[in-house]
Design goal:
The chain is of the alpha/beta class. 43% of the residues lie in helices and 11% in strands. The chain has a five-stranded parallel beta sheet with strand order 2-1-3-4-5, with helices on both faces. The protein is elongated.
Length: 243
């Protein structure tokens, strides 16, 4: 059978997808032992995990880009879950990092705006998970800043205010939320979750992957494996199994 004929006989295979939208902590999530890679491994043959992490970005920029990433004509229908994971840059101190800083009230408004946009393209609240920024280990991050000739440009207490705002937005909008800032600090030495005081270590990636999976598993457990197991393919008539 010619490929064109086979394509005409079978319906187009559309893999469902999970979209990870965030800053560098999302962009780096497909690195070795990354939380995004862990999710992709769990969901192989069920859906694609799409990394849309943008290092250094904040919610002010993210809300402008989201409609270019997800629309009714570009994958909204097949999107089974979206994570929105910003705040580590928004919470930068205004005086020391004005380019990335976003005021707390605007940060919350931007999160709400992105949720409202997703709802407008028929991605409902139950498919959206907000993730708060992780806690900041100030002494480690200060070393990173000093190495670049900068002063410490973030504070954990400030990051916590943004985390609380993220949690409140989720409550107001009816989405799920993963309060990473609080959960990680239940461990007295939360610095082990961080590689440089801000970004995730291998342990931090594993922690996030486990916490997120406990929420995604409920949403995605009904997804079937795509295409039959190879032992179930009729080798004498594969078209009957595969088209």
């Amino acid at each position: 059978m010619a490929l064109a004929e086979a394509g005409a006989r079978g319906r187009l295979l559309l893999w469902p997808r999970v979209v990870l939208f965030g800053d560098s902590i999302t962009e780096f999530s497909f690195q070795e032992n990354g939380w995004g890679a862990s999710l992709a491994e769990r969901l192989v043959r069920k859906c694609d995990v799409v990394n849309r992490g943008l290092s250094g970005y904040n919610t002010r920029w993210a809300k402008l880009i989201l409609p270019r990433l997800i629309s009714k004509s570009t994958g909204a229908e097949s999107t089974v879950a979206v994570t929105i994971f910003f705040g580590a840059n928004d919470s930068a101190l205004k005086d020391l990092n004005p380019k990335q800083h976003v005021p707390l009230e605007e940060y919350a408004a931007n999160l709400k705006s992105m949720i409202q946009y997703l709802k407008s393209v028929d991605i409902t609240e139950d498919r959206i998970i907000l993730i708060t920024p992780p806690p900041l280990q100030e002494s480690a991050w200060e070393k990173e800043c000093l190495a670049k000739g900068d002063k410490l440009n973030r504070r954990n207490a400030t990051t916590g205010e943004y985390a609380q705002a993220c949690v409140q937005v989720a409550r107001d909008c009816g989405t799920d939320v993963l309060d990473l800032w609080t959960l990680m600090q239940q461990n007295q030495d939360f610095s082990s979750y961080l590689s440089d005081g801000l970004h995730l270590s291998t342990k931090g990636n594993s922690f996030l992957a486990a916490q997120l999976w406990s929420r995604l598993d409920k949403k995605l457990s009904a997804l079937p494996s795509l295409l039959p197991y190879w032992r179930d393919v009729d080798h004498r008539n594969p078209e009957a199994s595969l088209l």
